[in-house]
Amino acid sequence: MPDDLSLLIEAAREAGEIATRIAGPDARRWDKPGDAGPVTEADLAVDTHLRQRLRGARPGYGWLSEESEADPTRLTARDVFIVDPIDGTRSFIEGSKTWAHSLAIARDGEVTAAVVYLPQRDLMYVAEKGGGATLNDAPLTASARQDVDGAEVLIAKPGLAPALWPNGVPPITRAYRPSLAYRLALVAEGRFDAMLTVRATWEWDIAAGALLATEAGALATDPTGAPLRFNSPTGQTRGILASAPALHPALRPAVPGA
């Protein structure tokens, strides 16, 4: 039986084969209730495969996925799969290549194994707790930037609203990618100095990427600097800030309710 990380890698490749057989712009799609965004037949096909593949191999693990019905029994499981079948569904629909499969395993609230896979770019990001992070088997090292002035940060425009920065919006260079998992992978790769989101964030969007970032040497917390914990009752965090460690204090916004 493969170890947890090998299992995630194999499952991610299988997910890529399923998703790439369905052309995004031609995929059947519909909108989720409650303005929760679009979903396609590819999202559901990948979710079904991953649920059967992963839980078939680890029947005692809990399950948390964007496209599966809530299963409260996960809260009593020590280990849980946290999965986004396709992170960046809108990009998938548009025919872009910047969508990803995000697969993680958390034990007692901490991610222990993670894969972010972009099949149409042949990018396989992998991390294991205490074992480092790699891209296509090459080790990753996050940015060691010291100066926030001009730092390249992946952040949506609302994250730079002046109300969030009482001492002034930091003098960063803003960039954006639609997939949160990919943004975190890019921080792990050192291609960007940081990424930040200040809205409530689903765990399946960030669990795998958070381990990639920290194992590459970045610091990943919620926007207030508090540690990230996974498999929570809500399945959400307050947001996420992953950055070169020296930049972290300067990139913490004022988060409502914090």
From TrEMBL:
Similarity comment text for this entry: Belongs to the inositol monophosphatase superfamily.
PANTHER family: INOSITOL MONOPHOSPHATASE (PTHR20854), INOSITOL-1-MONOPHOSPHATASE-RELATED (PTHR20854:SF4)
InterPro entries with a match to the protein in the record: Inositol_monophosphatase-like, Inositol_monophosphatase_CS
GO molecular function ontology, one term from the record: metal ion binding
Gene Ontology biological process: inositol metabolic process; phosphatidylinositol phosphate biosynthetic process; signal transduction
Protein name: Inositol monophosphatase
Domain of life: Bacteria
Pfam families in the record: Inositol_P (PF00459)
UniProt organism field: Pseudaestuariivita atlantica
Database matches in SUPFAM superfamilies: Carbohydrate phosphatase
UniProt keyword annotation of Metal-binding present: yes
Keywords associated with the record: Magnesium, Metal-binding
Cofactor(s) the protein needs: Mg(2+)
Amino acids binding Mg(2+): E66, D84, I86, D87, D205
